[in-house]
Specification:
Number of strands: 4
Oligomer: single chain
Largest sheet: 4 strands, antiparallel
Radius of gyration: 17 Å
Strand order of the largest sheet: 1-2-3-4
Order of helices and strands: HEEHEEH
Structural class: alpha+beta
């Protein structure tokens, strides 16, 4: 089965976001597109987390999640300092990932519908 151009662009956007975080922050990103709305979670780098203020007394790691649906929401429990410009870039890149996922999802649904009607 051939991968659509929309899916390739979505995958590339996820890769760009994760690479951007790796090169410019101490955060790792993870994308959950298994349900609506899509959630992009940013966790502190695992090697820096062991004795970090981003781990609570129960050992749970704090995170920042960008939720992209009809609107974008940011949920944050991280203790960190970051420039507003860098934070805006991360959120914009996460929104781009979300929008491209919805395009890819719709393209795949149309493809399946067309194949089933033949």
């Amino acid at each position: 089965m051939e991968v659509s151009a929309e899916k390739k662009e979505y995958d590339a956007a996820v890769e760009r976001l994760c690479k951007f975080c790796q090169e410019n922050t101490e955060l790792e990103c993870s994308v959950d597109d298994s349900k609506y709305p899509i959630c992009i979670t940013f966790l502190p780098n695992r090697q820096l987390t062991l004795f970090s203020e981003n781990v609570d007394e129960d050992g749970a790691v704090n995170d920042m999640t960008v939720i992209v649906g009809l609107s974008t929401k940011v949920q944050n429990s991280l203790n960190f300092k970051m420039s507003s410009d860098l934070l805006k870039k991360i959120i914009k890149k996460a929104e781009k990932v979300g929008m491209l996922y919805y395009h890819a999802f719709r393209a795949e649904a149309d493809k399946e519908e067309n194949e089933n009607s033949l």
